[in-house]
Amino acid sequence: MPKSLKSIVESVHKVYSQLSDRERLVADLVLETPGEISMYPASELARLVGVSNSTVTRFVRRTGFNNYEEMRRSAREARNWGSPLFLAQQADHGPRESTENRLVQFAEQEIKLLQRTLGDLTPARVDEIATALAKANNLGFMGFRNSYYFAAYARWQFIQFRDKTRMIPGSGETVAERIADLGEGDVVLVVGVRRIVGILKRYLEAISNTGASVLLITDPSARGIPAIARWTITCPVENSHVFDSYSGVLAVLRLLAFETFEKIGKPGREYMQKIEERHEELAEFE
Q1: Cβ count within 10 A of residue 22
Q2: Which CATH architecture has domain 117-279?
Q3: Taking residues 41-68, what's their average pLDDT?
Q4: Distance linking the first and last C-alpha atoms of the chain
């Protein structure tokens, strides 16, 4: 992944909480479709957002770029590299297709979201994350509201082939009680898709302060929290339908589980065999 791709998005997240309300309007557009800034001069971006040129200038300097043209060149490099995040335009909310074409339209949108999500991953990045998940002493999973179900699903994948996994918090527990023994070498996979609860940033900071690494699975609406995570995977969820699509989120979780299983190798298969033996012993399935 080229430095330009990573620097624009991460730089905005790092300073997002320090931006003025007007500057955040610019930041929101940049984070939603960062590639678009490569196509607009500063004055046009200001017009689209509804702010002054000086607001755009202040925003650019706060993010660490010397001027708007420097940021624009970085975005152009990312588009040329082919990043789906920087190639994506804003979601199409035009009229729906006729009834007979809705299934086709629905399938096409799901495929595009999957391509955008998985297309932004590189083999090297997946390998790095899977290696950390395989070697982690303790592996935690966290999510709230609808994100809880995805985090729980992710844990269900991993408990099939490795030990020392946990939901954070567990039933009847607080977050503090569940992260007190975490430390360097541990990893917490956090799912935070919209709408993201306000306290999540505090929890991520607390986990990071233990020395554990945070893997964040989120969507483009996230603000600030990606700067806390060691790894962030962004999954587009917006489409022309009323409900968000989480196909990309589930695909990423399955991919990471599969790659981690491959990394663990024989011990993972032996652990899976032990579970199957207990299933048979307890007659838990018909």
Answers
A1: 17
A2: 3-Layer(aba) Sandwich (3.40)
A3: 90
A4: 48
